[in-house]
Sequence to fold (606 residues):
Amino acid sequence: LLRRRAVAMDTKEFLEKLMPMLSSPDVALRRWHHVCELLEDLSARDVKKKECDSLCSSLLLASWQGLTALWRKKKDTTDDLRLLEWEKGLLENLQKLVSCVGTDSVLEDSESVWAKFVKTGLRYNLGNALFLNTLRCLAAVVYRPSGPGRSLPAATLYQLIWSHSHFLSIIMARHHGKADSDAKGDLVELLLELLTFDITSCTSQHVPVLLGAYEATLSRTDQTLLCILHVYEEKGVASAELMPWLWGESSVEHHRVRRDFGPSLWQQPGLEDVLKLVEKEKMQQSALNFPVSRSLKPQVCDVDQPACEMYDPCFFLPLFASVLTPECVVDCRRFVETHCLGFALAGLASNDADMRAASYHVLSLFYLHLEGARFAEKRQLLYLLQCLQNGLRRPNLQVPNIVTLFLARTSQLLLHPDDHMYPLVFRYLLVRPDLDLKAIPEFHILFFSTSMEFKTERSWILTLLVDGLRDKQDFLLYKNKSVFHIALSFYQSPLSDQHSKSLVMTLLQKACSIPEAAESLCQDHGLLSWLHELVIRRRGEPSVVSQVIQLLHSLWTTLLGKPRTACADSEVLPEIRTSAQTQTTLPPQLAQEFLLVCESIGENLG
Fold:
């Protein structure tokens, strides 16, 4: 009936009759649902934009008043479950209203209503993730130049949140291997949103709290916290006295001691304190899965790997630079043992020039400390870095992923002379004084090894190939070295063991997630024909059929997706950049080949 009446009546007259009812906390949720449907209908019809904006603005005010009255009513009643469902529905409808508000709409007579809504909401709902998310969406509307934010400025709201009695318990919540707390994530996103409008409320007392809540990972919450810390640093609030930054619970303890006893050189943290907080396994995974597309300037973005299990290079590379200065005492061997050197080496493959420059800077500082260090593996590590330095033909050159991972693994290998791979890898380094950045280190020698430990050597190089395949440039390097021709042929060979076959399938799986690689494998390597033959030959082997199905699904999904843009960085190796500009086309027979493989799978399963 509401929707029919809305068509028959003038919009303003309908709004005047509807507002008193919607601003009451007792209005049924279904009526708010009808209102949202009404807005969608009005936007679809030939209704003036000004009238729609006026309608949305009035409905926003009514929803603020209704929620304010509901929160005040909630503290005086025992029927919490019903009111919670009511509150959730109203907040969800409020988010829909915010999305309908135009950029030029004016919220008239709303300053006092907004202030009451925010203050009442913060009093009862700071731990409500939905409320915090809604408040963040509203801030973008309220604190624009024509918004009603004068009664409660963004700086005042920022201070109200910080002074809340539950603020510390929410922002200091730990995930402990699980998903981030929804309330903590939405809270820090709200803080960052408010800082975009006004940064005058930033004080140095906030920095220890932010560092205590920060865990230095690539989770969305930690990325947002790092962006907030970056704002404080740009404003000059995060002074040099607080550097180097510790994080987590250790940061809280450090700043507590500093506050109680005052600053001193004895309390100044160094590399040893930083390395105590580093988890070796997490740092190793961060080096293996370095986010090559991430820029050095902190920003919130999505990552492919589990974010909570990876460290953020935007935090660690500047941190390493601050603790590796010439006046600092550095335990070089422990820096290598904790995979920090491998992490810096992995940064040389980044697509961002600033990230690579930071990695080169960290390596140069570490090299100076390494020259004066005293431990057994010093000369080998120095030679490794010298080979890398001699192989660089221009400043800030982007190094292929597989070469950086080879260097990172070799740096760990040099600490274990008893390892079987030690003489093989070190022999490769001794062949020439510079590192060939356009080659896959020891690929043919290790893959076609004839020694008694040939399985170990083949597994080592195959694992390196799997970890080093990240993007289009890596695929082109593999293609130039005939890696996929050799891998596909080797899979069907009697010399291939089960572990090697599994690594080959994993390599193909990663390649099929790259659009250019997927097209090239189908066109130039006959991958679909190879899969069809594999299903026929391996009839009755469910594990092989399962791998083929996964590979086929990944291939189909990638080919239907959007192609990635080629890297335009001028520092990329010119041979790789020239090849990367070549675009392939999808042949019309590809769908028939897919169908043929699917039919063979169906016959195998039947």
